[in-house]
Design a protein that fits this description.
- By secondary structure, the chain is of the alpha/beta class.
- Helix 4 runs parallel beside helix 11.
- The chain is about 45% helix and about 15% strand.
- It is built from 16 helices and 15 strands.
- It starts with a helix and ends in a 7-residue tail after the last helix.
- The protein binds pyridoxal-5'-phosphate.
Length: about 425
Amino acid sequence: MNSSLPEFDPQVFEIANEDLARQQSSLTLIPSENYASKAVMQAQATVLANKYAEGYPYQRYYNGCLPCDKIETLAIERAKDLFGAEHVNVQPHAGTQANMAIYQALLKPGDTILSMKLDHGGHLSHGLPQNFSGSYYNIVHYGVSPDTELVDLDYVAELAKEHRPKMIIVGASAYPRVLDFSEWRKISDSVDAYLLADIAHISGLIAGKVHPDPIPYSHVVSTTTHKTLRGPRGAIIMCKSEYAKDIDRAIFPGLQGGPFMHAIAARAVAFKEALQSEFREYQSQVVRNAKTLADQLMGNGFRLVSGGTDNHLMLIDLTSISDKLSGRQAANYLEEAGIIVNKNTIPFDKRSANSTSGIRLGTPMITSRGMKEPEMVMIADFISETIKQRQRVGSRKRVREKVQELCRAFPVYEDN
Ligand SMILES: *Cc1c(COP(=O)(O)O)cnc(C)c1O
């Protein structure tokens, strides 16, 4: 009971430390990841993990829940402050579960959902055939236009008129541009559909006031807490008061049992962090860094989907370098050079989701390390060198040394 992790289980302790070393010594440009603060991780490691608290604050199915009631209430109040939502449910274990609960609350199996095509940047919980969403609901997809690679709202409106969806989902995992939620609400109103804004990727930007706000225009909003929001893994649902009961019932007892109270405590800490003025500064640096990285990559001859970025992420179209180079290969070369990215389809991709013609890059993590514009220029050049000199012996090792030097200058967790 009382021995510490390194004493009792050095095997697990060492593997976790191995990942700490990996996180420190590589540049991660995966736009859906971030480094949670020490305070967030400490909250998550508390004894709140031991408690069953089925139900909601002050209405539990277990005794001994008073501290949990206080923690959950705090998390809810802080989330409301941060986003200005009427109602918040802080219990979803992850973003996919949050979306599942929203569908269960507002739709019936077989109802039509209009959402973004997955290979144009949508998420698996928006209708992948192998996901519950694709098997329980009738999914109709919009995509980006071939000319601009932006979502064409006139086309979305046409599809809405034709298919009369019960719900329209706005939000994506790989869309580098701003979403104007007020325009989306006009479309959903025109067919009397619910508007769900899934802001999993951009909720940090929204909380930091560097992206338009979905709250006034959406019936429901879902977000993860571990992406740009920089909290622990998990999700929340925000909605207008009139849907509160249905949403809460869909999470518990609909889809989940006991909430992860330690994770909810960590979410409360993350919301407090996001309410500080430093967080706004961080988010605007994330966006400035993405612009600089994008400009330097384009200057180096890479084509970016839609010609750049307005947010924290961008997609490189590798066919602008070579038709023979897949996203999978490029991501593997970059990993050898110490740069972690993920392969991603680009709109109208000729390759499969497993191979892809693109890689997706984002700036949340390197910005959390304190890097600014000069480092973005260096990183863009590291990426160019790795990809363009992929056939040269020793090129990745040379980049790797420069990457490690940069990582040492910007440590993730100061005292490690
Ligand atoms: C990340 C993401 C989710 C949720 O992902 P989980 O891995 O289930 O937490 C949902 N929607 C979008 C658009 C996302 O990018």
